[in-house]
């Protein structure tokens, strides 16, 4: 398998944490790229031009972090990371992905020249983050695909938007993240 990724991408982190958790690190060729510079091999592999993107051993292309995570869960070692209620796990992951999408949109908006930024858009994304985080539930003693998405999400807030103060507003979530941040899979994938 070949995985196109970027170390700062929260979407890619969801996938790479799963690679580690499923004991697949020796089976995945890791190709670090900057998707914004349109590298030729990324565009040859995926017409979408985004990371993460996975090429399976059979040559199939899988895009979208959630789908790639489920694929890796299926081919890797150990019990399924979808748990006993797969739809509930997917729903938890989707909620976390909603926050990732909003945070990512804020970051991208902030990279525009100041006169082309749209403060209402940034505020809208911020309101979504503020609505979702109180609804997020953490679970102790397990680390499934929903938890992995949440860990990537909160790690991204720490990395790119520490000023929004999510830790002070949600101390239980902060404690949970500090706990899972000690997992080897999280340490190996810390954004930089
Ligand atoms: N929904 C996608 C989002 C992937 C995504 O937006 N990746 C960003 C990097 S964080 C990217 O490659 N952006 C390049 C672009 O938009 O051209 C997923 O979950 O995998």
Spell out the key features of this protein:
192 residues, alpha+beta, Glutaredoxin, Glutathione S-transferase Yfyf (Class Pi), Chain A, domain 2, 2 domains, 4-stranded mixed beta sheet, 54% helix, binds glutathione
Walk me through what this model shows:
32% of the residues are buried. β3 (53-55) and β4 form a beta hairpin. With 192 residues, this protein is α+β, with helices and mostly antiparallel strands. The chain contains 9 helices and 4 strands. It has 2 domains: 2-75, Glutaredoxin, CATH 3.40.30.10; 86-183, Glutathione S-transferase Yfyf (Class Pi), Chain A, domain 2 (Up-down Bundle), CATH 1.20.1050. Bound molecules: glutathione. Glutathione binds at residues 9, 11, 35-36, 49-52, 64-65, 104.
Please provide a brief summary of the model:
The protein has 192 residues and is of the alpha+beta class. Helix content is 54%, strand content 7%.
Specify the number of helices: 9
Number of strands: 4
How many domains? The number is 2
Structural class: alpha+beta
What is the overall pLDDT average?
97
Query: What ligands does this structure carry?
Result: glutathione
CATH third-tier fold name of the largest domain: Glutathione S-transferase Yfyf (Class Pi), Chain A, domain 2
Enumerate the strands of the largest sheet in spatial order, edge to edge or round the barrel: 2-1-3-4
Name the shape in a single word.
globular
């Amino acid at each position: 398998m070949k995985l196109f990724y970027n170390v700062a991408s929260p979407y890619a982190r969801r996938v790479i944490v799963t690679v580690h958790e499923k004991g697949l690190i020796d089976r995945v060729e890791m190709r670090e790229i900057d998707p914004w510079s349109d590298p030729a091999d990324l565009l040859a592999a995926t017409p979408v031009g985004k990371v993460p993107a996975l090429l399976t051993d059979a040559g199939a292309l899988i895009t979208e972090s959630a789908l790639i995570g489920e694929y890796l869960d299926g081919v890797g070692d150990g019990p399924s990371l979808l748990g006993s209620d797969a739809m509930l796990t997917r729903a938890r992951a989707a909620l976390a992905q909603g926050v990732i999408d909003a945070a990512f949109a804020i970051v991208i908006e902030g990279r525009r020249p100041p006169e082309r930024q749209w403060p209402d858009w940034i505020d809208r994304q911020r309101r979504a983050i503020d609505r979702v985080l109180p609804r997020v539930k953490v679970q102790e003693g397990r680390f499934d695909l929903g938890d992995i998405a949440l860990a990537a999400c909160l790690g991204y807030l720490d990395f790119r938007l520490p000023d929004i103060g999510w830790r002070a507003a949600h101390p239980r979530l902060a404690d949970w993240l500090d706990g899972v941040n000690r997992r080897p899979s999280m340490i190996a994938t810390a954004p930089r």
